[in-house]
Write a structure and sequence with these properties.
19 strands, 15 helices, Serine Threonine Protein Phosphatase 5, Tetratricopeptide repeat, alpha+beta, Tumour Suppressor Smad4
């Protein structure tokens, strides 16, 4: 029987079937036979030779398998020990090479994500061989480059027909796919210049609202452009003048109008506006000095109000009760109607205070309260808060929960679609609060990175669960609520304003860093 196995193994070895010969030779002890000993010696040398061939061809793992078989048959021979050392060094080199390759592919992936497509392609060109991750990165880089070129082409065409909203949108798409290159920088400068000129024309023609919408869309693209900054400043001052007019303070409105008239002396409507404000201020002064003022002397302005007037506060906002709050008239009018809330870990929120809000494309003929970067042909809808309920109305039918409607009483979770792509989700997170949240999908706001809109009634709840309007990692809820024209914070957590302990009753000032426990936030006028 042993002789038969030896002969079978010899035939397999002679035919080059080393693995079959190994199975036959290791199945029983052939060393007890002289012929078997010679067979094992030849088989060990055959495995060593084949292992060397594998190693020379770069197949280190196959070489290691043959070396192990040679060691199992022949023991720890000097030639097999030396071969194992060489194989081990080769395997270590392969591991280092794979690790370097993986690092190179990961770095190329980061460059693709950041838009540095040329650098990513250069790195991927240095990767020997192909693999699925490498091929996918190469495809993504090529696709992004094609998307950038297409977006630049559409932006150029939009700029030629002076459709500045479309040009800005396409340039923003190009910038998100690739770091700025020469063509992108040149086209951006051309669009910024053209859009700023159009905004200036709107201002000269008395359409400050249209200029405001265009500038809000343009500012993220323009950066520190002085012309855009100056026009935006003009719009902000115009809005401030209008707030004074709404509060009946025509004297303060006149001051602001005179200042912005110097900023845009060619705007003819400003001359008339200054004259009207001057006439209204004189009329109010005559009324205050006339017999009617004697009917109720107790209503005369207090010394603190005069002190507030002397302070020169034209913003109409205040961090706490005092002169500025006293002169603004109705208490809640001191808080702007549009705010931006930036919260650590949660992102940016646009906060709208009016009970009636219009929602639609920012390029609509009549600028909506909530302007979206969307097709100008989409409808404008109205969302109104009535005694804690929200009603949706629209002249053009829209889809709510996949059903076409022109009006609906909104409920938590309702899906509003202005188009198949431009969608909003209506949420009432807390049954005890009538403040609602709109979540945007397939569209975005022209200013900043806000993707959610808070329709503020009385309070904004920050907390760790689904009942909060803003979900953050707090150990207990914090509530921001409107009181006496301020946004006051109620919380059991430590509260700091500008890194100093704060009195919650004094309200949250605008533009100042605030911390509630571990979470930081900043509230600014939008």
């Amino acid at each position: 029987m042993r002789i038969l196995q030896i002969k079978q193994a010899e035939c397999a070895l002679a035919d080059g079937r080393l693995d079959e010969a190994f199975e036959l030779a290791s199945g029983s002890d052939l060393r007890a036979h002289r012929r078997g000993q010679k067979l094992i010696g030849r088989l060990v040398r055959a495995f060593v030779d084949r292992a060397r061939d594998h190693l020379a061809a770069g197949r280190a793992r196959q070489a290691l398998a043959d070396c192990e078989k040679a060691e199992k048959l022949g023991g720890n021979l000097p030639e097999t020990a030396e071969l194992r050392r060489r194989i081990t060094r080769s395997l270590a080199g392969e591991q280092d090479s794979r690790r370097q390759r993986a690092d190179l592919v990961a770095a190329a992936g980061r460059h693709v994500e950041d838009g540095r497509l040329s650098l990513a392609e250069q790195m991927l060109a240095g990767v020997n061989g192909g693999s699925r991750p490498v091929d996918m990165l190469r495809y993504e880089a090529a696709a992004r480059r094609a998307a950038v070129e297409a977006a630049l082409g559409r932006a150029d065409a939009a700029a030629r027909r002076q459709d500045w909203f479309a040009a800005i949108e396409e340039l923003r798409t190009a910038r998100t796919n690739q770091a700025p290159n020469a063509r992108l920088a040149d086209l951006t400068a051309e669009v910024v210049s053209g859009a700023a000129a159009r905004a200036h024309q709107h201002i000269l023609g008395g359409r400050v609202d249209l200029a405001d919408g265009l500038l809000r869309c343009l500012k993220p693209l323009a950066g520190p452009d002085p012309e855009v900054h100056g026009l935006s400043r003009f719009v902000e001052e115009s809005r401030r003048a209008w707030r004074w007019i709404q509060r009946g303070r025509t004297d303060r409105a006149r001051e602001v109008l005179q200042r912005i008239r110097a900023m845009q002396p060619d705007a003819k409507w400003l001359k008339e506006a200054v004259g009207n404000a001057d006439d209204a201020a004189k009329a109010m002064e005559s009324l205050r000095a006339g017999p009617l003022a004697m009917l109720d002397p107790g209503e005369a302005p207090s010394e603190t109000e005069h002190a507030g007037e002397r302070s020169g506060d034209l913003s109409g906002t205040s961090a706490g009760p005092g002169p500025a709050a006293a002169e603004t008239g109705p208490a809640e009018s001191a808080l702007p109607s549009r705010l931006q809330l930036q919260v650590d870990e949660a992102g940016a929120f646009l906060v709208l205070r009016p009970s009636r809000v219009t929602v639609g494309p920012i390029s609509s003929p009549h600028l909506p309260d909530l302007g979206l970067m969307a097709d100008p042909s989409l409808p404008v809808v109205e969302i109104e808060r009535v005694e804690g309920d929200y009603l949706l109305r629209t002249a053009t039918p829209v889809c709510v929960n996949d059903k076409t409607v022109t009006g609906k009483l909104l409920a938590d979770g309702d899906r509003i679609a202005l188009s198949p792509r431009c969608r909003l989700r209506f949420r009432l997170p807390n049954a005890a609060s009538s403040t609602a949240v709109l979540e945007l999908s397939g569209t975005r706001l022209p200013q900043g990175d806000a993707r959610r809109v808070i329709l503020l009634d009385r309070e904004i709840i920050l907390g760790p669960d689904d009942s909060a309007h803003v979900r953050v990692a707090l150990s207990a809820q914090a509530v921001l609520h409107v009181k006496d024209g301020r946004l006051v914070c109620r919380t059991d957590l430590p509260l700091t304003v500008d890194r100093r302990p704060a009195d919650p009753s004094r309200g949250i000032p605008l533009g100042v860093p605030v911390r509630i426990g571990p979470i930081g936030l900043v509230l600014t006028e939008a």
